[in-house]
Amino acid sequence: MGRHALPGTPPVPLTLRKSARARRISLRISQLDGRVTLTYPTGVPETEALSFAHQKEAWIRGHLQERPEVETVGIGHSIPIEGIARRIVPAQGRRVLLQGDEIGVPAGAEARRLARFLKELARDRLTGACDDYAAILGRPYHSLTLRDTRSRWGSCTSTGGLMFSWRLILAPPEVLHYVAAHEVAHLAEMNHSPAFWAQVERIFGPYKGPRRWLRDNGAELHRYRFEVAS
Ligand SMILES: [Zn+2]
Fold first, then answer.
1. Average pLDDT over residues 35-47
2. Cβ distance 32 to 47 under 8 Å?
3. How much distance in Å is there from the Cα of 121 to the middle of ligand 1?
4. CA distance linking residue 158 with residue 44, whole number of Å
5. pLDDT of 62-107, one tens digit each?
6. CA of 182 to the centre of ligand 1 (A)
């Protein structure tokens, strides 16, 4: 296995794999991290495999552009937490520590530790917000669940079960608060009628800004990957 790159802007790193089982030269682009793997049979010289990749450069670059830009979370990278970009740095102690624009993560399984920390922080902030809004609304909720949902930021069942995407902790606080107020307002109005929006306005205040923020920037919050790419 060797490391090469297609020159150009930007250069495209190639991972070369010599394989006894491969019948021909092939290219594969990982949907997970955009890695380009060039596989070639044992009998084929590396230079021939590389020239194959050069011929396919336009095809490779086209596919890389279509891919949503994914950011794998790790030391040296940045991640927004409560709307502020934080640099992920190694921590000395045994705990994840959020300090200013840095977040310290102890060595080993950094992404998993960071995800666990963010979920705890999301639970803390969402519980606080939901308690406040439920008190203003005058209706209690039954439970609060966190998930990693792509389709929705929150939901509310007829039995008062609130569900939220823990990725809301990456968004500015007023956005997390708006989603909390939105779901809590469903405890009174299980629809999106004018009466529902009046409740949101009553318990939260003007909500158009954070609502628009989610529509415009929500997809950004899904770019961050916490599992180790294989
Ligand atoms: Zn709703």
1. 93
2. no
3. 23
4. 64
5. 888 776 677 889 999 999 999 999 999 999 888 999 999 999 999 8
6. 6
User: For the chain, which domains are there?
Assistant: 2-66 (no CATH), 72-225 (3.30.2010.10)
The pTM assigned to this predicted structure is 0.71
Token digits of residue 13: 């790193």
Using CA atoms, how far apart are residues 128 and 108, in angstroms rounded to an integer?
31
Q: For residue 40, what are the contacts with CB-CB under 8 A and spacing of at least 6?
A: 16, 17, 18, 19, 22, 24, 25, 26, 46, 48, 49, 52
pLDDT number for residue 230: 40
**Ligand 1 centre from 133 Cα, in Å?**
15
d(CA 115, ligand 1 centre) in Å = 26
How remote is the CA of residue 212 from the centroid of ligand 1, in Å? 14
Mean pLDDT value across the chain: 91
